[in-house]
Design a protein that fits this description.
Layout lengths: L12 E8 L6 E6 L5 E2 L2 E3 L6 H12 L2 E12 L10 E13 L11 E7 L1 H9 L6 H12 L9 H4 L1 E11 L5 E6 L1 E3 L6 H9 L7 E3 L4 E2 L2 E4 L5 H13 L2 E13 L6 E12 L9 E7 L1 H9 L6 H11 L3
Parallel strand pairs: 1-6, 8-15
Antiparallel strand pairs: 1-4, 2-3, 2-7, 5-6, 8-13, 9-12, 9-16, 10-11, 14-15
């Protein structure tokens, strides 16, 4: 296999902002020292906290108030595909502010001023290019007016849904590693008879059940504070028990499907030891297959993610 160059994605991150409102229709903003623009209080999500705790921490560090949280209002994916600093911004709503301390001031090295703005003031800041994350803030306000909340799932438990990594893993015989999914959502079951049976039994289309999840390449969501290559090495070990070395990249898969937006670098990796114990709740079987066998699996409908698999296989065979 010829030497590959690896993709230069930076460490992905999640910023969490706080849209704090009062009973007069005002919005609390802070002016940041680094760009002299107004913005929401926000903080980076840490490994040791859930996403709502990050929003609360941003408020504690950058406002004078206590308040009631009222749900995630907006998810900004504008910088998700930025190779140098991939990031997303989640905005939580908060209301009923009351002063908790006149002595706790925001860090002057970060925040130079704070103030309340009405909608007209927010719009003017945006038009004058003095509002950081303007599109996201205006979107969050619009969702607040419509009482729209965002379902972002359990980010801390399942990983960052917007950042994923995948890999084609091969061995010395140029066979390719595949895992059979142990659990699958009802709506993704390929057998129509089995799918209808589960629905008739009262399962929701999005329920995870024991069933034929299909064969797949290793792939998964990144955890907070985890890089793309670090994440896929972990995923391969968890799903198959194999230890691998990343040799380079194949391509970057991006999804803009509403509710499933993500960026996923797909790497080329070689296995060097294993298999050790793998997570049987996630993988029911592992195997090594030739490219021709994988094409036959695709023809028979046995693949879980045929687009991802066949694109990776096509690029692998050109190396």
């Amino acid at each position: 296999m010829k030497e590959q160059q690896t993709m230069g994605f930076g460490l992905p991150s999640c910023r969490v902002g706080l849209l704090l409102t009062d009973n007069t229709g005002g919005f609390f903003l802070v002016k940041r020292v680094n760009d002299n623009k107004w913005s929401l209080p926000w903080a980076y999500l840490r490994k040791d906290e859930d996403i709502e705790q990050a929003a609360e921490r941003a408020g504690m560090e950058q406002t004078y108030y206590d308040y009631d949280m009222n749900g995630a209002r907006y998810v900004d994916l504008q910088h998700m595909s930025d190779a140098l600093r991939p990031s997303v911004l989640v905005i939580y709503g908060a209301e009923h502010p009351h002063d908790i301390s006149a002595t706790d001031m925001p860090d002057p090295e970060i925040i130079s001023a704070t103030s309340w703005f009405d909608r007209a003031g927010i719009a003017k800041l945006s038009s004058d290019d003095l509002l950081h994350d303007a599109e996201a803030i205006l979107g969050a306000i619009d969702n607040l007016d419509k009482n729209v909340t965002m379902n972002i799932g359990d980010v801390q438990k399942w990983g960052l849904p917007w950042f994923r990594a995948g890999a084609l893993v091969y061995n010395g015989e140029r066979k390719i590693l595949m895992m059979h999914e142990a659990r699958v959502k009802v709506k993704k079951i390929k057998d129509p008879v089995l799918k209808q049976k589960l629905l008739d039994e009262g399962h929701s289309p999005s329920d995870w059940v024991d069933g034929d999840g299909g064969w797949n390449f290793p792939a998964g969501r990144l955890k907070v504070g985890e890089g793309f290559k670090e994440g896929i090495i972990r995923e391969i070990k968890e799903e198959s028990g194999w230890n691998v070395e990343i040799e380079g990249d194949l391509y970057i898969k991006q999804s803009k499907e509403p509710g499933n937006e993500h960026v996923m670098p797909v790497y080329l990796a070689s296995a060097f030891s294993g298999p050790e114990q793998f997570q049987t709740w996630e993988t029911s079987e592992i195997g090594w297959f030739t490219p021709e066998e994988i094409r036959e699996m695709n023809d028979s409908g046995a693949l879980r993610s045929p687009g991802f698999i066949m694109k990776s296989l096509e690029l692998f065979e050109k190396l």
